[in-house]
Write a structure and sequence with these properties.
Distance between the termini: 39 Å
Oligomer: single chain
Number of strands: 0
Number of domains: 2
Structural class: mainly alpha
CATH architecture of the largest domain: Orthogonal Bundle
Largest sheet: none
CATH class of the largest domain: Mainly Alpha
Order of helices and strands: HHHHHHH
CATH topology of the largest domain: Hypothetical Protein Yqey, Chain: A, domain1
Amino acid sequence: MNIMNTKGQLQNDLKKAMLNQDAERKATIRMSLSAIKNAEIDRGRELEDSEIQAIIQKEVKSRRETIEDAKRAQRPDIITGTEAEIEILETYLPQQLSHEEIEALVGEAIAEVGATSPREIGQIMKVLMPRVRGQADGNQVNQIVRQLLS
């Protein structure tokens, strides 16, 4: 993103979606703005961009869980719509790290902590998560840590 923050970008894109009569994009952005607004009300202040990114990340994670549930329920109609929402939301998140990039960061964190066994996963995650926040799913990072330690 350029100088405009994520919330401003969402608001501008909502206006564009309304003008273009893009119902799916409009609904998805409105849900995100609503989640941001609720968080601002809860905290009693405007959110910083990193906090907004975390909310969008949470929205994506929630939709991925919805897709898993829809697969179990054999509901392809829900899966398609939800995947489209994830695509829209991901445009507001930083570029996601590749599997190889995560592995490299995990390797650095393991060396930094001096970990040798799976019992030290907590220490590694503590060092690693601030570095990958918003750029990788915590579950995926955890799986890679487990693989490299075993």
